[in-house]
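quick q for whoever's on today - can somebody do inverse folding on this one?? i tried earlier but teh output was garbage lol. tokens:
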């Protein structure tokens, strides 16, 4: 789990990078590289769960994100992480 602190004062560049950040996150979620991403309403904290073998790999994944220059992060190796999955629509049968 990556615990990220963001600066108190966010500049215009930060706000302009948010849509690109969301695009990168969606891509990483679809590939299973990250399993969850949360930003608080005040835009002061981010939490990301990452599928990685090493802390170095986590660092490389996080460095890929457009907002990474704003991050002060700490990495926590999780022993267990449980979530409720999103419900999937039923599969259609053409029979």
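ok took a stab at it. sequence:
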């Amino acid at each position: 789990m990556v615990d990220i602190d963001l600066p108190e004062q966010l500049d215009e560049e930060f706000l302009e990078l948010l849509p690109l950040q969301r695009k990168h996150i969606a891509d990483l979620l679809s590939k299973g590289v990250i399993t969850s991403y949360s930003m608080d309403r005040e835009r002061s904290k981010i939490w990301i769960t990452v599928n990685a073998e090493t802390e170095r790999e986590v660092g490389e994944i996080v460095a890929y994100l457009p907002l990474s220059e704003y991050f002060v992060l700490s990495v926590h190796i999780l022993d267990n992480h449980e979530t409720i999955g999103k419900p999937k629509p039923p599969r259609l049968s053409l029979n």
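fwiw The longest helix spans residues 12-31. also The mean pLDDT is 87. so keep that in mind when u check it
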